[in-house]
């Protein structure tokens, strides 16, 4: 494991990362989802894709990459792109899980691999709608501290900068970003995913012209049990 310091828009970030198969000429970059870290991706995919230099990254605010700034997805894209430039990455393949899928798409790699990507707005459950309504009510009364009890488990332990970041990115509609991606895409999904529905995956596939869609029996982390097959399909399906 290593760390690189970089500055983007007058903000300094220390990015934790790990590289495997360092002598390989082609790169595959792995971007984790919200609330996750590079180790999950590394533990799953490191035994495979031996012809690629693997680059595992902790996005700012996750794993061992600290962050207290309020960010937007466009900031994550800038930061990740600058980081990959420092590593002289060719961005042959970028694989993104959940929130990492939005960042991966915006980086416009030669080959895009989406694993139950976020980016399609879905109808919120009644429970979530109720939490949002209560939080807005207490905020209007100037009782902001009380709203912390209504926060999602995804952000309950995060600092204020990351909570603000979460609010910035959670309801983004990336439909146009998917539609505007013109390169090769492999889209993998869990058929029982309750975080990003199977229908969202099918919609993303319909938006990206040059895409292949494959689903597996599993939830939001379906790729843990299907990494070998996914890796084989990536090897056979990239340009």
From TrEMBL:
Signal peptide: none annotated. InterPro entries: AB_hydrolase_1, AB_hydrolase_fold, AB_hydrolase_sf. It comes from the Bacteria. Pfam families: Abhydrolase_1. GO terms for molecular function: hydrolase activity. One of its GO terms (cellular component) is membrane. The keyword Hydrolase applies. This is Alpha/beta fold hydrolase. It comes from Poseidonibacter ostreae.
């Amino acid at each position: 494991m290593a760390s690189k310091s970089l500055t983007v828009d007058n903000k300094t970030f220390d990015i934790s990362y790990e590289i495997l198969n360092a002598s390989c000429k082609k790169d595959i970059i792995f971007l984790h989802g919200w609330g996750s870290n590079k180790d999950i991706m590394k533990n799953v995919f490191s035994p495979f894709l031996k012809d690629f230099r693997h680059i595992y990254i902790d996005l700012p605010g996750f794993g061992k990459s600290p962050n207290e700034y309020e960010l937007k997805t466009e900031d994550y894209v800038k930061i990740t792109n600058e980081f990959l430039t420092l590593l002289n990455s060719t961005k042959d393949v970028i694989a993104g899980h959940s929130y990492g899928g939005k960042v991966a798409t915006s980086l416009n790699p030669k080959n895009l691999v989406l694993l139950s990507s976020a980016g399609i707005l879905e109808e919120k459950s009644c429970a979530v709608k109720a939490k949002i309504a209560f939080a807005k009510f207490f905020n209007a009364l100037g009782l902001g501290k009380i709203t912390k009890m209504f926060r999602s488990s995804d952000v309950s332990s995060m600092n204020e900068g990351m909570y603000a970041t979460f609010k910035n990115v959670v309801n983004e509609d990336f439909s146009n970003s998917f539609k505007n991606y013109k390169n090769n895409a492999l889209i993998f999904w869990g058929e029982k995913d309750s975080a990003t529905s199977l229908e969202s995956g099918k919609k993303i596939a319909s938006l990206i012209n040059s895409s292949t869609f494959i689903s597996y029996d599993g939830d939001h982390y379906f790729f843990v049990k299907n990494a070998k097959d996914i890796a084989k399909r990536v090897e056979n399906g990239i340009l």
